[in-house]
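quick q for whoever's on today - can somebody do inverse folding on this one?? i tried earlier but teh output was garbage lol. tokens:
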């Protein structure tokens, strides 16, 4: 079983428990987008580990709550997830800063972002570090020729009307490809 599924289930029990006193297996299944059977398996495992308390509220209904050990486990998993995420962001930042510095050395006067990106703040930071202006573009037709452009991982517009030497595709960076 996937550790992320356990995290999602623990977190869902915690979050749903703040909203209402009774949480069904079906509620949890929907919240974590897993089948009822898989949710049942995960709940049994987490209960056996002492992380989830199963409370019978009627002969046919049960609800779920985190135990103190379950809260500690959720906190630990959250911390590990945060550390991994921060490490990944730092890796992307270093790659984007290097690409931006290289673009400046090659004579580009502006760093741009085509489309909306989840890491736009990193590109803006890299432009500032290289002392280049940062611009956002909605379409490839509005990109000045002296701009180096990062193409958003979400961009679905028209093909680029600029040289591939003046472009970095974010989806390539996120996939870890050169």
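ok took a stab at it. sequence:
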């Amino acid at each position: 079983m996937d550790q992320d599924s356990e995290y999602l289930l623990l977190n869902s029990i915690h979050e749903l428990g703040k909203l209402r006193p009774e949480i069904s297996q079906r509620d949890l299944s929907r919240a974590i987008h897993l089948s009822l059977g898989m949710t049942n398996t995960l709940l049994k495992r987490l209960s056996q580990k002492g992380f989830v308390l199963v409370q019978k509220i009627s002969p046919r209904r049960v609800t779920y709550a985190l135990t103190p050990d379950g809260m500690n486990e959720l906190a630990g998993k959250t911390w590990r997830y945060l550390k991994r995420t921060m490490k990944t962001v730092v890796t992307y930042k270093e790659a984007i800063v290097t690409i931006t510095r290289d673009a400046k050395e090659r004579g580009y006067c502006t760093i741009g972002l085509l489309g909306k990106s989840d890491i736009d703040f990193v590109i803006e930071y890299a432009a500032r570090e290289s002392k280049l202006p940062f611009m956002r573009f909605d379409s490839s037709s509005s990109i000045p020729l002296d701009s180096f452009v990062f193409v958003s991982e979400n961009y679905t517009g028209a093909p680029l009307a600029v040289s591939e030497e003046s472009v970095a595709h974010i989806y390539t960076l996120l996939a870890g490809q050169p």
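fwiw The longest helix spans residues 68-105. also The beta strands are 52-58, 61-66, 110-114, 134-137, 147-151, 167-169. so keep that in mind when u check it
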